[in-house]
Design goal:
- The protein has 15 helices and 14 strands.
- It has an 8-stranded parallel beta sheet, sandwiched between helices. Strands 1-4 form a two-stranded antiparallel sheet.
- Helix 7 crosses helix 15, helix 10 runs parallel beside helix 11 and helix 13 packs parallel to helix 14.
- The structure holds zinc ion (3 copies).
């Protein structure tokens, strides 16, 4: 079995610390040599600490020399993703089912998230549900009918379709991809376990987005496979319909349980797991349905460079993003505070860049109180769309921040008053199944 113990950029000009996971097996590896094409060097902490203990004095350098079995054919050189694994050497290891991060064979709990090595996450009663068992299809019609009968203004409309589970990122033999179908299954199962859905929320019928609804947005002409194309069109279609339903007043809020995520997709290209910009599609649909002003709040831990690009010259859509930035070293590198929009749109892009990892509830709530809410209230949007990545959640392997489900619930609550309750929450990133499930569930409850 070949190991995946660090992350790299194939192109040295790209940011080297993009999404570097918080797994100490990875973060303590000095990536600078690796970028130059050399072997891995090991930092002092790692050499003198855990690694040495585990491997009885051998170093990663030894592994590079002796067991350098790189299989480069796993890489698509044209791929532009915010996540890339590397496998320069072999070690016995296991991948965490909850967060996908690699761990040494002799530890039984995941270094990043604490999940037990042998735990069957979908066997747990929290996840044991209709969705986890793959019988969603037989239930869908019934849920739809019940939804239409029980739909009321007070219930949350949910956009979900199991065809979005068929999309998989280009498979790397060496490492499970963090943007995976289990993300939706886990959230759906958690909503079911909480009795929220099916139940208190109504399901809307799924449809694919029409090409003309995408307008000048990026139209992907190559997909990983036909399932990806379909999944992306359904995700965008659901987001458009949820925006339309909310604007019509049939329901006041909605949750789009969709993938692939969208906020890195702009007018020119798809990047970072994203194919269509779902939030932008929803914003345009809301405007077509009568909204004059749309607020997009992006609390995904990464900057929504695609969304910013689409609306930076547009004063009818206010884009506010909170994200790790670290002076441009964190993926995708954009989103500095000085980026405030262009031409007509100046002042209608607001970036709140964090300078480090570990940001938690208090920082987010403070930023909401001091910046997001005052600006949003003055803007007085007709609808608020949230690009809701849960990769700033505690335990996320890529975000390495510390937001709790209660924090997400409070942010949701604060935003719901801004546009008279018209709120559409769209799933973006988030890769720790337990964290995204509990976070999304507390957001929908709110
Ligand atoms: Zn884990
Ligand atoms: Zn963001
Ligand atoms: Zn993200």
């Amino acid at each position: 079995m070949s190991a995946t113990l660090c992350y790299h950029r194939k192109n040295p000009e790209k940011k080297v610390s993009d999404d570097a996971p918080c797994n100490p097996l990875i973060s303590e590896v000095d990536m600078s040599n690796e970028i130059d094409g050399g072997c891995l060097s090991v930092s002092g902490t790692m050499e003198s600490g855990r690694y040495k203990k585990l491997q009885k004095g051998s170093t990663i350098q030894d592994y590079c020399d002796n067991e350098n079995n790189v299989d480069d054919d796993d890489y698509d050189e044209d791929e532009d993703s915010d996540w890339e694994p590397i496998n320069h050497f072999s070690l016995k290891k296991w991948f965490c089912c909850n967060c996908t991060m690699p761990n040494f064979e002799d530890v039984c709990r995941c270094d990043v998230c604490g999940e037990h090595k042998e735990f069957d996450i979908f066997g747990h009663e929290l996840f044991k549900s209709t969705f986890g068992d793959g019988t969603w299809n037989s239930l869908k019609d019934e849920v739809l009918q019940r939804s239409q009968a029980s739909a009321s203004k007070s219930c949350t409309a949910i956009g979900f379709d199991d065809r979005m589970l068929l999309h998989t990122e280009v498979v790397m033999r060496s490492h499970p991809h963090p943007e995976r179908p289990d993300r939706l299954k886990a959230i759906a199962a958690s909503l079911a376990a909480a009795g929220i859905f099916p139940g208190r929320c109504s399901l809307i019928p799924a449809r694919e987005i029409y090409p003309d609804e995408l307008g000048k947005l990026f139209h992907p002409d190559t997909y990983a496979n036909q399932h990806s194309a379909l999944a992306a069109r359904i995700a965008a279609g659901l987001c458009a319909d949820l925006a339309i339903i909310i604007m019509s007043g049939k329901t006041s809020n909605g949750f789009a349980l969709v993938r692939p995520p969208g906020h890195h997709a702009g007018t020119r290209q798809a990047m970072g797991f994203c194919l269509h910009n779902n939030a932008a599609v929803a914003a345009f649909a809301a405007q077509a349905a009568g909204a004059k002003k749309v607020l997009i709040v992006d609390w995904d831990v990464h900057h929504g460079n695609g969304t910013q690009e689409i609306f930076e010259g547009n004063r009818t859509v206010l884009y506010i993003s909170l994200h790790r930035h670290e002076h441009g070293k964190f993926y995708p590198g954009t989103g500095a505070a000085v980026e405030v929009g262009v031409m007509d749109g100046q002042g209608y892009t607001v970036n709140i860049p964090w300078s480090q990892s570990g940001i938690g509830d208090n920082d987010y709530i403070f930023a909401f109180q001091q910046i997001v809410l005052p600006i949003a209230s003055e803007f007085a949007p007709d609808i608020t769309i949230v690009s809701a990545g849960f990769d700033a959640a505690r335990g996320d392997p890529l975000g390495c921040c510390d937001v709790t489900p209660a924090g997400y619930a409070q942010m949701t609550h604060m935003l719901s008053s801004v546009s008279g309750g018209k709120l559409l929450v769209i799933l973006e990133g988030g890769y720790n199944l337990r964290s995204i499930s509990s976070s999304a569930t507390s957001v929908v409850k709110e």
